[in-house]
Known about the structure:
The protein is α/β, with parallel strands linked by helices. The protein is built from 14 helices and twelve strands. Strands 3-2-1-4-12-11-5 form a seven-stranded mixed β-sheet, with helices on both faces. A five-stranded mixed β-sheet has the order 6-7-10-8-9, with helices on both faces.
Amino acid sequence: MKIIVDAMGGDNAPQAPVMGAIQANKEYGVGITLVGRGEDILKVLEENGIRELPAGVEIAHASEVVEICDNPATAFREKKDSSLTVGLNLLKAGEGDAFVSAGSTGALLGAATLLIKRIRGIRRAALAPVVPTGNGGAVLIDAGANVKCPPEYLIQFAYMGSYYAEHVLGRPQPKVGLLNIGVEPSKGTELQTTVYPLLKKAGEEGRICFVGNIEAREAVEGAVDVIVADGYSGNIFLKTMEGTGLFLAREIKGIFMKNLMTKLAAVLVSGGLKKFKKLMSSSEVGGTALLGISKPVIKAHGSSDAYAIKNAIRQANQFASSGIIGSISDNIDLMRLDVPEAE
């Protein structure tokens, strides 16, 4: 297995992508292609005491970088020798099994859609992060790529999310819930009330394990393995969880740092606190899968450090070897609605 890594993408590039890739090569035994400015990559390696490329690691030179200020819709075309464009073209050409980048989400999504293409029959690719929940994490799909969604998008999200939870997360018969403001079938906007009976029918036919509408609080508690949403609602859900996690971490730290007694108490529960911190950390997951693209693409968080990039590469390796893209392709007829596409 070979993973192509955007060495110039993210706030901590090239240090984090390069060293995360080196760690992944060592720990997981995957081949690595680092894409970016060769001299910058070699400088990072030298600064970390690595004078020769480890076995299985190679560099693909790319002279340009897609910056955060670049237009995400056109950046990959205007900068054809960027690490993002070169890396995706390598994936397209079959010179790697998956692509990982911590660069611009919009640029990556647009470039992956136009260069790698969507799976035939999939209307839109979706961002599918694994969010921390009471059952060890759930796939949230979509988390922001598609703000306006006709019913067919959510049908396809439900199937793709279910396949990802089964093949990549190892959840047999993953439970699928439709994010809503109540559990009753009549709740929600026209989109939710239209999608509900379609998902219910898929569940009754044994295509997916649909358990009905799910409120945000039940989703966080771990009632489902897949949370289906339009990108607008899904992104609000995701950002609320991230903010809540940061708020809780800060408040818990404040409680334990009050005085000597509370500091001693912190020592006694340090194991539990570390476990909680690990549960809430996006670095543990590594990145967000772009589901619906015809080859595996992982978007790592823009602020990823080397540890997060290493885990994103692990995730990409699991994605590439899971067979999920084949499962989606084989079942695409189940996900179609005979309606014109809404833009």
